[in-house]
Amino acid sequence: MTAEVFYDDDADLSIIADRKVAVLGYGSQGHAHALSLRDSGVDVRVGLQEGSKSRPKAEEEGLTVATPAEAAAWADVIMVLVPDTVQAELYKKDIEPNLNPGDVLMFGHGFNIRYGLITPPAGVDVAMVAPKGPGHVVRRQFVDGKGVPCLIAVEQDATGTAQRVALSYARAIGGTRAGVLKTTFTEETETDLFGEQAVLCGGVAELIRAGFDTLVEAGYSPEAAYFECLHELKLIVDMVNEGGLSNMWYSVSDTAEYGGVTRGPRIVNDGTRAEMRRILDEIQSGAFAKEWVAESKTYDNFDKLRAEQREHKIEEVGSKLRDMMPWVKRTITETA
Ligand SMILES: NC(=O)C1=CN([C@@H]2O[C@H](COP(=O)(O)OP(=O)(O)OC[C@H]3O[C@@H](n4cnc5c(N)ncnc54)[C@H](OP(=O)(O)O)[C@@H]3O)[C@@H](O)[C@H]2O)C=CC1
Ligand SMILES: CC[C@](O)(C(C)=O)C(=O)O
Ligand SMILES: [Mg+2]
Ligand SMILES: [Mg+2]
User: Fold this and answer.
1) Domain around 38
2) Measuring CA to CA, which of 51, 167, 303, 311 is 20 to 30 A from 321?
3) pLDDT of residue 335
4) Is position 280 within any domain?
5) Same domain, 254 and 220
């Protein structure tokens, strides 16, 4: 079935501009939504704990900051943009007691609703606006007059207006400039988790590291391996993003094209595809969600894995080489 796609003309900005919107969290997505909503004329307050590290950043931007409970009590649209693993506790403590019939409870990802970690009361709308891109890019593209595509979904429509509010919100953060797809919480959650694990984040990071390690272990310089397996990736992916895989094949040499189409399937082979299927099974069965929620209680294993990623040789050599390319933006915190 073809998905329904909405653009600016399908979304009425005045709907969200007439509401009071609380954005809970001011991290990657939170800062992007709060600032772009504000720039689109929406009355927005940011909800952060007392002593939160993000508070000064939001206040420097002139945003009104309150505690999550105060912001939720004030608002009639509440967007939950704190990490997935803390949402259920925040919901019980600060959001649920401040929900009124007719309010709209919104999410940037369906994790907590899909896996039953949050069950909102019957009288409120439950909707989602999930940008298909990192929050810092969502903001950057909005400022540049562009937009990151979004998915919207309605889990509960107590008022009969939830979809129009979600579309209006998506317009206010630039989503309808690029295209907004209607989906369900289940489809968004499962496809998003699969994409980030198997392809966009997990798959790509391991492919880069494996390529880099192979060249360095064979005696080539780490600098050459970095340029080949990491730096040039963006240039190649830009071609794919702009015109699809065929655009990339058109632009690269015939030698690269022949080598790619004959050797690529040896890298992503039947075994890789079977592993992708297992990863999807873990997502669909809830096994991944259970593992992640349990891990988030201590972060013991996650901390080790994070340190191992940071300490990889590719990070050291990359940092030095990027110093010589000032046009390559160095960290998201400097550009946010
Ligand atoms: N990152 C992304 O680009 C994308 C994220 N999403 C979804 O958006 C949601 C937010 O993710 P993301 O932006 O990555 O989150 P972040 O990790 O960037 O959120 C950090 C923010 O949440 C605040 N925070 C953390 N814990 C609490 C708490 N217990 N109470 C109140 N505030 C808290 C932090 O405050 P402090 O500074 O004090 O720590 C900070 O402001 C998730 O559902 C995610 O799946 C969807 C699409 C893409
Ligand atoms: C690809 C990772 C993502 O799903 C995203 C930026 O869209 C996330 O959860 O951060
Ligand atoms: Mg995503
Ligand atoms: Mg995600």
Assistant:
1) 5-183
2) 303
3) 42
4) no
5) yes
Same domain, 64 and 149: yes
Amino acid at residue number 136: H
17 Cα–ligand 1 center, Å: 24
Same domain, 173 and 230: no
| Longest Cα separation, the chain | 66
pLDDT of residue 331: 59
Q: How many Cα atoms within 13 Å fall on the side-chain side of residue 184? A: 4
Expressed in angstroms and rounded, the spacing between residue 18 Cα and the centre of ligand 4 is 29
- Residue 254's Cα: distance from chain center in Å? 35
Question: How many domains is the chain built from?
Answer: 2
Query: Which residues, 6 or more positions from 238, have their beta carbon under 8 angstroms from its beta carbon?
Result: none
Q: Are residues 116 and 263 in the same domain?
A: no
Its pTM stands at 0.97
- Boundary of a domain, candidates 183, 217, 244: 183
Each residue of 195-253: pLDDT tens digit?
Answer: 999 999 999 999 999 999 999 999 999 999 999 999 999 999 999 999 999 999 999 99
Q: Ligand 2 in contact with 27 (CB < 6 A)?
A: no
For the CA of 201, the nearest atom of ligand 2 = 1
- Please answer whether residues 127 and 106 qualify as being in contact, where contact means their C-beta atoms are separated by less than 8 angstroms: yes
Cα–Cα distances in angstroms (integers) from residue 34 to residues 71, 201, 270, in the given order:
13, 25, 44
Answer yes or no: is 277 within a domain: no
